[in-house]
Amino acid sequence: MSSLFDSTPPPPLAEALRPKTIEEVIGQTHLLASGKPLNLAFASGKPHSMILWGPPGVGKTTLARLSAKAFDREFIAISAVLAGVKEIREAIEQAQQNMSQYGKQTILFVDEIHRFNKSQQDALLPHVESGLFTFIGATTENPSFEVNSALLSRAQVYVLKSLSAAELKELLIRARKLAMPDLQFEDNAIDRLIAHADGDARRLLNLLEQIHNATSNPSASGKIIDQVFIENALSTQARRFDKGGDQFYDQISALHKSVRGSNPDAALYWLCRMLDGGVDPRYLSRRIVRMAWEDIGLADPRAMQLANDAALTYERLGSPEGELALGQAVVYLAVASKSNASYKAFNAARAYVAQDQSKPVPNHLRNAPTKLMKDLGHGKEYRYAHDEPHAYAAGESYLPEGMAQPHWYEPEQRGLETQIGEKMAFLRNLDQEAKKK
């Protein structure tokens, strides 16, 4: 006779529906479909060390567990969030015991491998090389930065993707059929629920379980779930966003490239995605100012002014009112004439100076505030440009002696730089005429 004390609670829906075979896995067809890398690996029966890199809720742990079944290996799982040297040592001892007592090899699964420091990751290397266990790591962070190169060189990296809306809908249908067939949804409510899951299978199943619990009381029994019910039952959606990780840098890259590509809609989309994800608007305002200087420059100097004004406006108003100024700035920057001529000129000049010797300032350009300096020839034969025709000392040199004009700054034929280019061409022509005299 069972009692209140020996009963065990049912597992969460996400755990209860975890696939038991590769065929049950939804998503990751680029890895699991016929002829694809993991499909071929599982079919071969020959395990290899791997790192599964992808966002939360896309099946990293599931694939690790299924690999043990596919390769007929013992499975040991540790979490780098909780584990230390003691847990690593125990896992190694267990793998040795599996081999010596049972003659079975082991798969060691390390979840959140990026949480291990260098010495902890290094501790795995000898046993990966000896074949004591096959290593499988899971990470949401870029392994290029977070996994030691020695360990990374011994493991194949597989990139897992967020589930599409169609794949999440397939998962929802399976969950309702197997665990909660009484739930009835309106079509728009299903779409809202899938959008709320944001590509995360675990989140979808947890949300579905939350809704099922909300409808289990008698007053909601038999209710057809609509979009209003979804909004009332679920908390505010937490977008998938890591303020210091790859998604952060990928999205700021997308914002910058959208501005550079003159697409205001895309620029606004990525700006709002980052604001929605909790990025500090002050960081965004700094990047917007950088975009104005790097990608627009003198083609439209108003862009620099507007970007700085937007940053100051945000400082004065804060969120959410100040965010409108940032939005207006990225729209203006996106539609403005583009030129990176100044940016390229600065980088070229800086690179030249970094590798060049310290050339002396020519005498005619030197400062001469004292009689001694004047007697030494400082400032001698300097031509005051305002006293020359067109306020330009044609043929004059402003570079160190022996240094040819490098022509780092070459204006683009866009925006204000079209006029700048015309003026520079005119001045160069004056130089050529002066040299003929």
What does this entry look like structurally?
This protein has a 5-stranded parallel beta sheet with strand order 2-3-4-1-5, with helices on both faces. Strands 6-7 form a two-stranded parallel sheet. It starts with 12 loop residues before the first helix and ends with a helix. Helix 5 (85-102) links the parallel strand 2 and strand 3 (106-111). It is elongated, with a radius of gyration of 32 Å. The longest helix has 21 residues, at 416-436. Helix content is 52%, strand content 7%. Helix 11 packs parallel to helix 13. The chain has 437 residues and is an alpha/beta fold.
The helix content is 40-55%
Shape: elongated
| CA-based gyration radius | 32 Å
Strand content: 5-15%
Question: What is the residue-mean pLDDT, rounded to a whole number?
Answer: 88
Structural class estimated from helices and strands: alpha/beta
**Tally of helical runs:** 21
Termini separation (Å)? 115 Å
Order of helices and strands: HHHEHEHEHHEHHEHEHHEHHHHHHHHH
Count of distinct strands: 7
Would you summarize the structure shown here?
The chain has helices at 13-16, 29-32, 37-44, 60-70, 85-102, 118-122, 125-130, 143-146, 149-152, 165-179, 187-197, 201-214, 227-233, 246-260, 264-276, 281-296, 302-317, 321-335, 341-355, 371-375, 416-436; strands at residues 50-53, 74-79, 106-111, 133-139, 156-159, 184-185, 224-225. It has 437 residues and is an alpha/beta fold.
Feature tags:
two-stranded parallel sheet; alpha/beta; elongated; 437 residues
